[in-house]
Amino acid sequence: MIHDPRAAAWLVWLESSPVAVAMRQWLWLYPAVEVLHIAGIAALVGGAVMFDLRLLGVSRGLPVAALAAHLLPWARVGLGMVALSGALMFTAHATEWAQNPAFRVKLLLIAAAGANAWAFHRWPFRAVARWDRDLPAPAPARVAALLSMILWLSVIACGRLLAYL
Question: What are the average pLDDT values for consecutive 10-residue runs of the chain, which has 165 residues?
């Protein structure tokens, strides 16, 4: 493996680690981890988008709190899968991906999506009992839902762009 001479020492160390070497050399390990990553994305973004659509007014008969209790744990499991598999894939290409603008933007978008989710649960969701069923979600909840969908879909787009930039 030839490392980028501009790369930070910790990235070179990470990319030379036994885990990174295994990710690059074991025939089925990288594809298996990639499948785990895609399954995690499906659980995370699928759960989040279904919940976001409810906040935007789709299926108003479904109670928001019950839908959150059903979908959001799956989204959290998906987030864990994505984080673990993403970290493993990063080790294999640490010096290359650290320089990739799509990767950097992806990390910023993930942080923004996390902040958006935190703010939603910190403010509008605390009053969900008042608008749980048959009422439109308040404007801050709808804005958070729209932001969530835009951010997570942008994260996916940046992930796909990694191979092309």
Answer: 80 96 97 98 98 96 96 97 98 95 98 98 97 94 98 97 92
Residues 6+ apart with CB under 8 A from 128: 64, 65, 68
Cα-based distances in Å from 5 to 2, 23, 93, 143, 155? 9, 22, 14, 44, 28
Cα separation, 118 vs 95, in Å, equals 31
How many CB atoms lie under 10 A from the CB of residue 163? 8
Rounded to an integer, what distance in angstroms lies between the CA atom of residue 60 and that of residue 55? 8
Residue for token digits 């390990």?
A: 29
CB 124, CB 142: distance < 8 Å: no
Q: Measured between alpha carbons, how far is 18 from 92 in angstroms, rounded to an integer?
A: 10
Q: Angle at Cα 79 formed by Cα 126 and Cα 113, nearest 5°?
A: 55
Q: Which two tokens stand for residue 119?
A: 């703010």
